[in-house]
Amino acid sequence: MNSEYRIKTRFWIEGKEGTFLGEGRIRLLQAIHETGSITGAAKSLEISYRKAWKMVDIMNEQAKIPLVVRQSGGKSGGGTLVTPKGEHAIATYLAFKSKCNAFIEETFKEFDF
């Protein structure tokens, strides 16, 4: 294989209602997990709060169990949490991505351009 070429790919998981999980949605879930809020996640990803909530709503509607939940006020204020199912979705997606990339890179070595 000629080392001046690299193969790139992206994938996403679709449900009956369209995209369920993909790179952007996984990054959003990770940012929510890190910041504890949709506002913080949206800012860190440089997307609008409205777009972030729409993505969360679509994921939650398609999931059997919500991936993200709102936590109401109290002493420490409210926030947004990634549920254990959401954490599982992140881990599973990243593992699948890693396996796919390894397969693609290995298979690409067979081609001579």
Could you please describe the fold and organization of this structure?
The chain is of the alpha+beta class and 113 residues long. It has a single domain (14-108), classed as Arc Repressor Mutant, subunit A (Orthogonal Bundle), CATH 1.10.10.10. Helices cover 53% and strands 13% of the residues. It has a two-stranded antiparallel ribbon. Strands 3-4 form a two-stranded antiparallel sheet. Strand 1 (13-15) and strand 2 form a beta hairpin.
A few lines on this structure:
This protein has 113 residues and is α+β, with helices and mostly antiparallel strands. Helix content is 53%, strand content 13%. It is built from four helices and four strands, in the order ββαααββα.
Tell me about the largest β-sheet.
Answer: 2 strands, antiparallel
Compute the number of helices. Answer: 4
Count of individual beta strands: 4
Mean pLDDT: 91
* Multimeric organization: single chain
Biggest sheet, spatial arrangement of strands: 1-2
Looking at the structure, the CATH topology is Arc Repressor Mutant, subunit A
- Under the CATH scheme, the architecture is Orthogonal Bundle
Work out the count of structural domains. Answer: 1
Q: CATH H-level name... which superfamily?
A: Winged helix-like DNA-binding domain superfamily/Winged helix DNA-binding domain
| CATH domain class name | Mainly Alpha
Helix/strand-derived class? Answer: alpha+beta
Rounded radius of gyration (Å): 17 Å
Classify the beta-strand content into a percent band.
Answer: 5-15%
Anisotropy-based shape:
elongated
User: Into which percent range does the helicity of residues fall?
Assistant: 40-55%
Contiguous low-pLDDT stretches (5 residues minimum) are none
SSE succession: EEHHHEEH
* Separation, N- and C-terminal Cα atoms: 7 Å
